[in-house]
Amino acid sequence: MNEMVAQLMQHRSVRSFDPSPVPEADLREIVAAGQMASTSSNVQAYSVIAVTDPALKRELSVLTGNQAYVESCPVFLVWCADLNRLSGAAEAHLEPGADAYADSAESFIVATVDAALAAQNAAIAAESMGYGICYIGGIRNRIEEVSNLLGIPGLAYPVFGMCVGLPDQPSGQRPRLPVEAVLHRNRYDAEKGRGPVAEYDETMTRYLRMRTDGRKSTPWTRIMAEWLTRPNRLHMLEYLKKRGFLKR
Amino acid sequence: MNEMVAQLMQHRSVRSFDPSPVPEADLREIVAAGQMASTSSNVQAYSVIAVTDPALKRELSVLTGNQAYVESCPVFLVWCADLNRLSGAAEAHLEPGADAYADSAESFIVATVDAALAAQNAAIAAESMGYGICYIGGIRNRIEEVSNLLGIPGLAYPVFGMCVGLPDQPSGQRPRLPVEAVLHRNRYDAEKGRGPVAEYDETMTRYLRMRTDGRKSTPWTRIMAEWLTRPNRLHMLEYLKKRGFLKR
């Protein structure tokens, strides 16, 4: 295993940060590395808002579900799928009244994937520089308020946040499903996940017991059943349509 | 700039491959590195199908828009957003008739982002091992046929493909938007992109001229206008709903 792969295998989410700021040069290097990820047809349909203002971070920590580390991390990156900049850039070349397809499900996928690929590259760059990161899906909890607070325009939406900063304590690494549960050969095999998933239930049960001094031991499959039946962020479809996405 | 960031900055898409196979151990290492990417609530809602069968690769190269490198790469990875495995795993813990939210826009985003983060980690691992990669959005051109061909079940869909193999010739690196076009400070600033975008039009015009011996020089903003007004993959919304996604 080379050093790069070793670093990827070392990833863990960091939720406790040293307050020292991320220098401007590091931030730019992290974002520039993000930009080098692949992008569909070179549309580069994402933006990132670097939030360092303490009052804004405080508000965001409330809006994301009272996650203290959103406030305590020195920089909170809000990764947006963004077809707004693209539409503005293209405007001068469009016939008046021309139909544009930024509102299609396809364009939504393109922008969302572009944002995710860039963010993951940025995460790896940050980790290689000694920073810790944590993705914050809670940015979608009260997404309309977040969008207003940060002035995010139509045809753009915050996909997730990301805390970045120097870790101030070691954090644990959660085991993943066995490779065989996610890797199929030539064709999708719906049966093949079963054995590895059962094995993973045992792995996660052991891990949870160890991390909680025996207090928790819920199998992964039960946690997933709880996740699936929780009416989580059901406002998203309406919000996205209001933003101009997913119309056709 | 450390070595990892330097590697990220060196990324370029590879479309011409040496036919030698990717050894099984390397494939597993690439996928395992993918699995270490962050995942929302540990749902790990993605799968990857490693296509090495020559006949299947040939069919896929046609279905993705006659892209020869889909056939000529030694392994073609089909990255799927996958809430099917999760639903199956959870089943034993669900009350009969329990409402599950795999069909929400929120769950669709979770699965799509999970797939993208894992794929980007895998791409970086592959590149660090000397392989070249190329994302293939064309997997969505005839997505229903691709899904049938690969036996992809409901509540799963192929987000993109990825050619992997040893590069057999050097490829060029497309410049990206200036950092300032994508990086906002504390709040989204719709105006700030304009200067950097105009600068990028010049950069890309120069780059295109250089790559095509002066034959092409279309500014990026015009290419984006063409992209926006092309009715691209408008079947996606209906396809996704048929697959059980985006119902609410």
Structural topology:
The structure is a homodimer of 248-residue chains.
Chain A lengths: L2 H7 L14 H12 L10 E6 L2 H10 L4 H5 L2 E8 L1 H7 L14 H24 L3 E5 L6 H8 L5 E10 L13 H4 E3 L8 H18 L8 H10 L6 H7 L6
Antiparallel strand pairs in A: 1-2, 2-4, 3-4
Family (chains A, B): Belongs to the flavin oxidoreductase frp family.
Keywords (chains A, B): Flavoprotein, FMN, NADP, Oxidoreductase
GO molecular function (chains A, B): oxidoreductase activity
What separation lies between the terminal Cα atoms of chain A?
45 Å
Largest two-chain interface: A-B, 118 and 119 residues
The major β-sheet of chain A equals: 4 strands, antiparallel
The helix/strand order of chain A is HHEHHEHHEHEHEHHH
Question: Could you please say which CATH topology of the largest domain in chain A applies here?
Answer: NADH Oxidase
Report the radius of gyration of chain A as a whole number of Å.
Answer: 20 Å
Annotated CATH homologous superfamily of the largest domain in chain A:
NADH Oxidase
Assembly of the depicted chains: homodimer
Shape of chain A: globular
Q: What level of helicity do the residues of chain A show?
A: 40-55%
SS strand fraction of chain A = 5-15%
Number of separate helices of chain A:
11
